[in-house]
Amino acid sequence: MVLDSWQLVDVASRPDAVGDGNCRLDAHWLNQMGTRAEASIRRGVDTVIVNRFGPLEANGRGFSNAIVVASETKTPLIIAVPEFEFERWTRFSRGMTVRLDCKLDKVLDWWTRVASSSPSGVPLDARTCEVFK
User: Fold this and answer.
1) Is residue 3 part of a domain?
2) pLDDT averaged per 10 residues in sequence order, the chain, 133 residues
3) Is 130 a domain residue?
4) Structural domain contains residue 117
5) Pairing of strands 23-25, 48-50
């Protein structure tokens, strides 16, 4: 679901061309969704939620530009990063990361801190992850 428009979109997979019944990610579709997300971020959103960081993003495709735009616009970003991808994510994000346990209370606590007014003594233009690391 694209939350700013409430539009439902098809799943990002396609039947395997080999016909073995398996599905493969549709990289073209993910690139299109990434471009749409990037446009939404530029228009202004409260936060960005990306379902995962993977090989497409690490190679500059999928949601990679949307992730970069979230950083440029200082928009809080929540992204699932598999443990085996965390080193690559750290390089991609240049260390601008607050690592959270994948638990609702941890995410809500982080959001409460991000959404509240700027902590005293912290410049208003400081990046969120610099403030709450």
Assistant:
1) no
2) 65 54 72 87 87 88 91 89 90 86 88 68 47 49
3) no
4) no
5) unpaired
| pTM as predicted | 0.71
Tokens of 119: 């902590």
Distance, in Å, from the CA atom of 68 to the CA atom of 92, rounded to the nearest integer, reads: 9
Rounded Cα distance, 62 and 32, in Å: 8
Q: What are the counts of helices (DSSP H) followed by strands (DSSP E) for the chain?
A: 6, 4
In a domain, 107, yes or no: no
Total Cβ atoms within 10 A of residue 41: 23
Please give the tally of structural domains in the chain.
1
Residue 68: which domain range? Answer: 13-95
Q: How far, in Å, CA of 129 to CA of 13, rounded?
A: 33
